Model the fold of this input.
Amino acid sequence: MTSKNWFEKNVQHVFTLPAVVFVLLMVIFPLGYTLVLSLRNWNLTIFAPPSWIWLQNYVQLLGDLRFWAATLRTLAYSFSAVLFEVILGVSVALFLNREFVGKNLTKTLFLLPMVATPVAIGMVWLLMYEPSIGLANHLLKSVGLPPQSWLTSRKSVLASLVLIDVWQWTPIIILITLAGLATLPTEPYDSAKIDGANRFQILTRITLPLVLPTVTIGVLIRIIDALKTYDIIYATTQGGPGEASETLNILGYVLGFSYFNLGKGSALIVLFLAVVTVVSLGVLALRNRINSLVN
Amino acid sequence: MKTSIRVANKTAYYLALCVILVCVSFPFIWMILASFKTQVQIQSTQNLFVFKPIFTNYPKVFKDYDFLRPIFNSFVIAAGSTVVGLILGLPASYAIARYRQRLLGIIILIIRFFPGITFLIPWFIIFSNLGLIDTYAALIVSHLLINLPFIIWLMVPFFEGMPRDLEDSARVDGCSTLQTFLRISLPLASPGIVTASLLSFVFSWNNFVFSMVLSGGRTKTLPLAVFNFVSYALIDWGALMAASVIITLPVLVIAFITQRYIIQGLTAGAVKG
Done:
């Protein structure tokens, strides 16, 4: 009887306990462990016991051009992908913001690039980008443009990866913007009509400012996910050619599991998390700024 | 005159719509087409869309590339991590929704934003020490990192939006909280639970990075098996595309079944924002 009472009294803790244990064991503890590892010299390819080297892993990384190149690449990839996705996504959402036959089917098709297995998507793009047999160069040739080397050249690999990202993730911006557009109030439009505003003025002075807060949420989600992009890059280029598409994520994997330098890999991950946090806080601050401007 | 302009406008609109839809679905169409082509047909610049289909790529994926085992592995791991995710996630979501455990809710949502690679080095060391590398257990537990936050993220608003009357009357009839949860709340939440299960299955099925490090010869998952095609000197494109179709098809079917809930879930948070 008493045990049953105890259960009833603490039921919320009993219900959350398994999830809390999981978070502690699999998230909090590994995070702390990563922090500790980042201060140690531990390389599985060297038969020396790990030793404390404190900040040396960080010093080495921060003095390494490869780290800075990967950081710049990660930022360039993420920001350019999200920029195109927002411009394209908001435009398409405005275009689709009315009743038409097949609206539900359209929305469903938009989901497919986001949920399909990234490795499979990477493989079909690999085929389409293939310089000698791929469709991309067929298309360029058929309209009289010179063929490109896409994923196989240092110069074009990052842009080609951005294009895949834009294909895959523009739909989420479209769907989020469409949902935002559906909730807009009607009063501003009525008064604009009375004042004789034209369609362009209505778009730039009413619709876009009102839907902006919703779009910013989409941008926040997308930026964080773009910084984390791993599957498609690794599946198509493994960071190559050379290191031309090596983002922080890929560099972390290479340090940890190709070089088996667990200490340095951990330090890189800590720095990577710092980059993700700074960018997220920046976008959050931007969002608050926009919200206060709109209201 | 006016009606003909309207018809022209409408036609232009639907044409533009078709262009958008073709752009979105084209890689899938291309994947499916190439899976029915021979290596020679794939390499030729003629007959891109009209060709004599062959059906040997699909059997080849199973015979030459031994796909049965990875399919089985991916299925066991995805189903396992979904079931464990539900067992941990459903009571937790209920408690977060009904007892306002905000802090836990927020911590679990933040996990979603961590790059998967964050945890791989410590997990690799922990699982190596426990002798769990290349076991289902390690992969199922690692996939929970994605599935558990997702299930909780989806189910908390679901439980919050559920009317309390039935739960209250069950209490009056003498049911304990656990009984109320099991007999009243869970059955009422079943549409949400089905969506959460299907999608968490998909996320696990799609996962690449955890399997790269934690699996091995025995537990190799489908994304790894597909990726392995690239390591051959000459890529067998037809078989690779057939393999890609095999891995993608269940995901697309699930997306069609759950589309309404995904769109709601994706957009609700952003609009409330």
